């Protein structure tokens, strides 16, 4: 009595079922593409830059750990770095926890110049 009968609307005459399916999938594909370029790709690039930075660590670099400690690299081993925080205060830090290299040491200049 209070419920009216509902009739389903028919689709457009001559509509191709594959076109309808593509129109339903297109927004999902578009969302994935947007997520890839705004989230996934920049994160992969940042990880690559961090891995290159960690691989290029050498003695004398001033680094910041992910815990916020600032110190100078005293030695670099396979998986860990010995960092001097203060005079006579050395800590061993896992390479992956280095968050930033503040100042890189320049290589010593070559002594190729001949005195005149």
Write the layout of secondary structure elements.
Blueprint: H1 17-55, E1 62-65, E2 70-76, E3 80-86, E4 89-94, E5 98-103
Antiparallel strand pairs: 1-2, 1-5, 2-3, 3-4
Summarize the structure in words:
It contains one helix and five strands. With 116 residues, it is α+β, with helices and mostly antiparallel strands. The protein folds into two domains: 16-55; 58-105, SH3 type barrels (Roll), CATH 2.30.30. It has a five-stranded antiparallel β-sheet with strand order 4-3-2-1-5. A hairpin with a 4-residue loop joins strand 1 (62-65) and strand 2. The longest helix is centred in the N-terminal third of the chain and has 39 residues, at 17-55. The model has no long low-confidence stretch (mean pLDDT 85).
Output mean pLDDT: 85
Instruction: List segments where confidence is low: pLDDT < 50 over at least 5 consecutive residues.
Output: none
Kindly provide the radius of gyration, computed on alpha-carbon positions and rounded to a whole number of angstroms.
Answer: 30 Å
Largest sheet, spatial ordering of strands? 4-3-2-1-5
Give the CA-CA distance, first to last residue. 112 Å
Number of helical stretches of at least 4 residues: 1
Largest sheet: 5 strands, antiparallel
What is the global morphology?
Answer: elongated
Give me the oligomer status. Answer: single chain
CATH top level of the largest domain?
Answer: Mainly Beta
């Amino acid at each position: 009595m209070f419920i009216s009968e509902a009739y389903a609307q028919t689709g457009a005459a001559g509509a191709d079922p594959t076109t309808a399916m593509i129109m339903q999938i297109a927004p999902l594909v578009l969302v994935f593409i947007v997520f890839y370029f705004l989230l996934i790709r920049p994160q992969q690039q940042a990880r690559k830059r961090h891995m290159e930075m960690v691989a290029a660590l050498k003695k004398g670099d001033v680094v910041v750990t992910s815990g916020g400690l600032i110190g100078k690299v005293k030695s670099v081993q396979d998986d860990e770095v010995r960092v001097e925080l203060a005079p006579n205060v050395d800590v061993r830090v896992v390479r992956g926890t280095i968050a930033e290299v503040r100042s890189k040491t320049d290589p010593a200049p070559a002594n190729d110049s001949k005195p005149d």
